[in-house]
Amino acid sequence: MIMYCGLNKNTKKFFLICYLCTDYTLKMKKTRNFCIIAHIDHGKSTLADRMLEITNTLTARDMENQVLDSMDLEKEKGITIKSHAIQMDYIYKGEEYTLNLIDTPGHVDFSYEVSRAIASCEGALLVVDATQGIQAQTISNLYLAIEHDLEIIPVLNKIDVDSAMVDVVTDQVVDLLGCKPEEILLASGKTGQGVREVLDAIVERVPAPVGDPDAPLQALIFDSVFNSFRGIIAYFKVVNGSIRPGDKVKFVSTGKEYVADEIGVLKMKMHPRKEIPCGSVGYIISGIKSAVEVKVGDTITHVNNPCKDAIAGFEEVKPMVFAGMYPVETDQYEELRASLEKFQLNDASLVFEPESSLALGFGFRCGFLGLLHLEIVQERLFREFNMDVITTVPNVSYKVYTTQGECLDVHNPSGLPPATLIDRIEEPYIRAQVISRADYYGPIMKLCLDKRGVLVNQHYLTADRLELTYEMPLSEIVFDFYDKLKSISKGYASFDYHVVGFKEAKLVKLDILLNGDPADALSTLIHADHAYDFGRKMCEKLKELIPRQQFDIAIQAAVGAKIIARETVKAVRKDVTAKCYGGDITRKRKLLEKQKQGKKRMRQIGTVEVPQSAFMAVLKLD
User: Fold this and answer.
1) What is d(CA 476, CA 453) in angstroms, rounded to the nearest whole number?
2) Could you give the count of Cα atoms lying within 13 Å of 120 in the half-sphere of its Cβ?
3) Using the 8-state DSSP alphabet, how is residue 243 labeled?
4) 499: β partners
5) CA 274, 113, 174 angle in degrees (round to 5)?
6) Is the sign of the CA dihedral 555, 557, 560, 562 positive or negative?
């Protein structure tokens, strides 16, 4: 038909390009990229299950609860740890639309996963539990989405529950978003009520992706996984241009070039495609073997026709908690390095660098977003890579100013310069938001004051719901703040925080000595006012955990040269006088003296084995 139109060569070419562009534009107009954001346990994954059922993405046979939570650990703990991408096809008013859903975690420790999901979307479902109302992480994730100019669709979930407060929570959402009550969708992830209306709203309200199909390829990598058979698989969103199998591609930040062996879309399994068009989400397999070659937030482009600029990715991750990880078997150091590199592909919020310890040998100093993140990493290393590791006492990062005017970042108490060279130490402070019932106002205030918190603001969201804003040191909330908050509020209080900067603090280094030798893995930086209590509790706890030896073990807590607490693990003793039945007392004394000399010699050559449970026990001192 084009051949017989009677137009010249150039016009024909122009006509052909226009035809292709129209096809691309049509595909983009019928694509919707959205994520689900909410506070922990508000029903994101269950709502995603119903969407997969309604769009027939999964058969009834393959369906199970929280199907996108593919890790055993996610199912056991009932939380989402990784964000998961999946494509659905939905018929709306007789036309087929492609919906790319990214399900995100709700826990504050995994907020980095949420930021990556938001960078790949144009819209977000803000899910609020109708029985609990707006919680702290709801507000935090909402602000993150608004910063990226996402279209927000509010959804009240769990409306089928008897204790649902639909009218009250609707008013809360209206106050928060400034939307009209009729714009809020009512749904139940459990029964499926209202879920079809949610899918309709996604098509109607979420804007189609914008981009130039004819521009050079620009694709943002938002996640990657390691496959032992196929190498590293990168997940990306095409912002401009398109990508086909066999294309020569380049990763902008690393400068590495590859051939796209296979590209495709993400359903419950990977589905290869001939092309991933502009605005769509997909995966690429190109035989990448080394973990350091793929960086989450990097840009993929063509080698022959590269883009001018890389896409502005998302913020670099800032670890909040640091801990040492050491292999139980010292010869497994290289295996631990390889495992951490592969793990980092799937979890870009983990950072690590080599370090060594006198007690534990060679290992890595790892940075985490919180204590739950640390626990999950340790558990996943054991399950997925068969790596059993010893974790040292977690601590936060400090800024140390020396008398020479230098500023040092210290992640480890053993990296602290001598006390004579320290001018001042600054510790990170956070702004914490606690939302709770007014009944628990008193106990929550006491807890925050005990943790050196300063009240910044308080206001009532409703007649019986209160929001408290505190500034407090990050080191005080790292260990047990969240658990205590849940206990004193009977599970009602919700908590969220963000770092606001560093402030000067009166900190001292607390050392634990075992028979006079410092156990550097148990050292910690602590506020001077809390050092005595913490040192005494640690000595008492270690006395319970360290097994008895053939000699006395002195456990001491020291600040500098001053011993502030001591406990002794008594030696296991044989009754050497049992065979002496009468006779001169000097016989018994001689045997006891001989035993005493043997114990003394044994103490000089014996070493104290500290069990792994002791390293984590300091977190549960209360």
Assistant:
1) 9
2) 33
3) B
4) 430
5) 105
6) negative
For the record, the structure tokens of 49 come out as 């299950």
Q: How far apart are the C-alpha atoms of 380 and 376, rounded to whole Å?
A: 6
CA distance 118 to 61: 31
| Domains delineated in the chain | 31-205 (3.40.50.300), 218-302 (2.40.30.10), 321-394 (3.30.70.870), 399-505 (3.30.70.240), 508-620 (3.30.70.2570)
Backbone angles phi, psi at 38, to 5 degrees: -170, 170
> Does pTM surpass 0.85?
no
Neighbours of 381 (CB within 10 A): 19
Residue 267, H or E segment:
none
Note whether 546 and 522 are within 8 A (CB): no
Highest mean pLDDT among 94-108, 284-298, 551-565: 551-565
Residue 138 CA to residue 130 CA, distance in Å, equals 13
d(CA 483, CA 480): 5
In the prediction, which pLDDT does 325 show?
86
Query: The tokens 């006390």 sit on which residue?
Result: 419
CA distance 260 to 241: 15
- Which strands, in side-by-side order, build the sheet including 95-103? 84-92, 95-103, 31-38, 123-129, 151-157, 185-186
Report d(CA 399, CA 389) in Å as an integer.
28
492-508 average pLDDT score = 82
pLDDT tens across 161-172, in order? 888 888 888 888
Query: Model confidence at 10, in pLDDT bands (50, 70, 90)?
Result: very low
| The pLDDT of residue 9 is above 50 | no
Confidence bin at 491 (pLDDT 50/70/90): low
Question: Average pLDDT of the chain?
Answer: 77
Place of tokens 């190498």: 231
Distances (CA, A) of 333 to 339, 363, 373, 448, 459: 10, 6, 22, 41, 52
The C-alpha atoms of residue 335 and residue 339 are separated, in whole angstroms, by 6
CB atoms within 10 A of CB 537: 16
Radius of gyration of the chain measured on its C-alpha atoms: 30
Q: Which helix (DSSP H) or strand (DSSP E) does residue 130 occupy?
A: none
Per residue in 238-279, pLDDT tens? 888 888 888 888 887 777 788 888 888 877 677 888 888 888
Closest by CA to 31, choosing from 124, 101, 118, 126, is 101
Burial of 597 (0-12, 13-18, 19+ CB in 10 A): exposed
Cα–Cα dist 516/561, whole Å: 11
90 membership: H or E segment, kind and range: strand 84-92
Does residue 363 contact residue 324 with C-beta atoms inside 8 Å? Answer: yes
Residues 6+ apart with CB under 8 A from 86: 48, 52, 57, 68, 100, 101, 103, 266, 267, 268
Residue 413 structure tokens? 């108490």
Tokens found for residue 187: 């749904």
Segment holding 359, helix H or strand E: none
Strands (E), 314-406: 321-327, 351-357, 361-368, 389-391, 398-402
Give the start-end residues of each E strand in 192-311: 218-227, 231-240, 248-251, 257-259, 262-266, 270-272, 281-288, 299-302
CB neighbourhood size of 584 (10 A): 9
pLDDT at position 471, please? 92
CA distance 323 to 394: 4
Three-class DSSP category at 383: helix
Q: Tokens for 210, please give them.
A: 């914008």
